[in-house]
Amino acid sequence: MTIFECTQLIKAYDNILILTHMRPDGDTLGSAAALCSALGRSGNTAYLFPNSEVTENYIEYIRPYFAPDGFIPGFVISADVADKELFPLGFNGEADLCIDHHPSNSGFARKSLVMPDKSSCGEIVFELILKMCGSVSVNEANLLYTALSTDTGCFRYANTNAASLRAAAALLEAGADNKRINKDLFRTKTFERIKLEGLIYTGLRRHAGGIVTVALITPEMMAESGATENDCEDLAGIPGSIKGTKIGITIRETEPGISKVSVRTGEEYDASEICAIFAGGGHAMAAGCNIRGNCEDAEKRIVGAINGLLK
């Protein structure tokens, strides 16, 4: 679909429910909430599905958009969701429309607007809102700046491009408070997060002659540092920051016997290809998957798979 076709489709429905993905980040939440706000300005009834995994970093901004008990949707939109396996906990329906920027999107929705050239879903939603409303509100600008900045690592990641920076500039002109958002999301850490980072750095492991660096985050490390889910955002970039690393892997046991794996690569290797081996996906330089087993088990399996690709 095109941006225009998508706006026309959305306008034809009311009582809209918007989905964010499991373990939601700033992009899915900011995109969904901004779209929800704009739909309200357009006269639609729209809410976010109450994602129980929203962390303290975002909950105060997102909670006002949560659907009330008993709300029955007439149309369901997913924002920044690449596959129905990533639907939020407690949602058992289908998506009528998917808005996404992941090239690995599985095409699960009845209609899709997938734009892999965008560095964040927030950029797509920004264009949708402009087409639908003609402008963004100050609150929507803040939400979209959150979406854009978190998915580009505050414009440090390789997916940042000229369009990303133009979108960010337009959002600042619309009133986005980048000073506050940047400080809250990128320059402020809890004491427990700092302790957890220390444990991660001292436990880094290198493979394949040093081009692969692995960071493990075990339940024991979480307990020792006192860190919570709120302290675990944006840890995936740590191993890739080591000089000489071309494939950075972060592995965290998120529940007994299940490890979440995040892969970050340079242009020489395809993170999505690596994660696809374990039914995961994402972008060429940033992807993820789940592997059964603890952190040590997951490390053996994914490093083994990478060694096979390197041969």
Helix-strand blueprint:
Elements lengths: L2 H9 L4 E4 L6 H16 L4 E3 L10 H4 L12 E5 L17 E4 L10 E4 L6 H13 L4 H14 L10 H12 L4 H9 L4 H12 L2 E3 L4 E6 L1 H7 L21 E9 L2 E8 L5 H6 L4 E2 L3 E7 L2 H16 L1
Helix pairs in contact: 1-4, 2-4, 2-5, 4-5, 5-6, 5-7, 8-9
General description of the model:
Helix content is 38%, strand content 18%. It folds into two domains: 3-186, inorganic pyrophosphatase (n-terminal core); 191-310, Diaminopimelate Epimerase, Chain A, domain 1 (Roll). α1 (3-11) packs across α4, α5 runs antiparallel to α6 (162-173) and α8 packs across α9. It is built from eleven helices and eleven strands. It starts with a helix and ends with a helix. A hairpin with a 3-residue loop joins β10 (281-282) and β11. The protein has helices at 3-11, 26-41, 59-62, 121-133, 138-151, 162-173, 178-186, 191-202, 219-225, 271-276, 295-310, and strands at 16-19, 46-48, 75-79, 97-100, 111-114, 205-207, 212-217, 247-255, 258-265, 281-282, 286-292. It has 311 residues and is an alpha/beta fold.
